[in-house]
């Protein structure tokens, strides 16, 4: 099933789903007696199979939702296939055919052992609904909630500057308060820079 199309390698490696589907379509073509296939013909068959599977899945999901369920059951898939005009009773016979191509399971990549020097605590195992091929949970210490506070400035000069700034702010605020609430007599009525300034 080699292809001579220049863009074949790029699209073939684009997604694992597409690669698996292409392998399945190629195996079905080999079973049917074909020895080679044109790239565009293979892509057309691939698009047809993908559209068929997508439509069957969408229909089955719709039947599940109409029944008030969130997960698809076998009965939903059967109803979707019947609606699409497929004879679902031929599926078991097709699965038990004699010259079928058997796909080997993907080889498991050996995982590099994590050094125990930097590990803190015991790692949690995956719950039953998470497949084992997914990465493990991080170390338990990463879940500990640690509050972060800004370190107080304890250098003498910074503390003195802050205290002086606060004292000056208090004096200005108090003076403005007294100027607003108390009676003042200005010598120069038109002087805009005279204290207290109008806010």
From TrEMBL:
Molecular function per GO: protein heterodimerization activity
SMART domains tied to this protein: BTP
Domain of life: Eukaryota
One cellular component (GO) term of this entry: transcription factor TFIID complex
Bromodomain associated domain residues: 15-90
One Pfam family it belongs to: TAF8_C
Keyword presence, Transcription: yes
Compartments it resides in: Nucleus
UniProtKB keywords: Nucleus, Transcription, Transcription regulation
PANTHER family for the chain: TRANSCRIPTION INITIATION FACTOR TFIID SUBUNIT 8
Family that this chain belongs to: Belongs to the TAF8 family.
Protein's recorded name: Transcription initiation factor TFIID subunit 8
Organism annotation: Elysia marginata
């Amino acid at each position: 099933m080699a292809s001579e199309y220049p863009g074949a390698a790029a699209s073939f490696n684009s997604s694992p789903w597409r690669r698996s589907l292409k392998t399945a379509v190629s195996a079905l073509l080999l079973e049917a007696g074909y020895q080679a296939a044109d790239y565009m013909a293979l892509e057309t068959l691939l698009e047809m199979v993908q559209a068929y599977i997508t439509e069957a899945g969408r229909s089955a999901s719709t039947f599940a939702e109409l029944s008030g369920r969130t997960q698809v059951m076998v009965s939903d898939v059967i109803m979707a296939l019947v609606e699409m005009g497929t004879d679902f009773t031929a599926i078991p016979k097709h699965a038990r055919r004699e010259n079928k191509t058997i796909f080997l399971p993907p080889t498991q990549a050996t995982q590099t052992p994590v050094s125990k020097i930097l590990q803190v605590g015991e790692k949690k195992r995956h719950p039953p609904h998470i497949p084992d091929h997914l990465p493990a949970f991080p170390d338990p210490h990463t879940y500990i909630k640690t509050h972060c506070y800004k370190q107080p400035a304890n250098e003498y000069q910074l503390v003195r500057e802050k205290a002086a700034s606060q004292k000056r702010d208090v004096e200005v605020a108090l003076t403005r308060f007294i100027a607003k609430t108390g009676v003042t007599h200005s010598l120069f009525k038109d002087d805009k820079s005279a204290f207290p300034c109008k806010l």
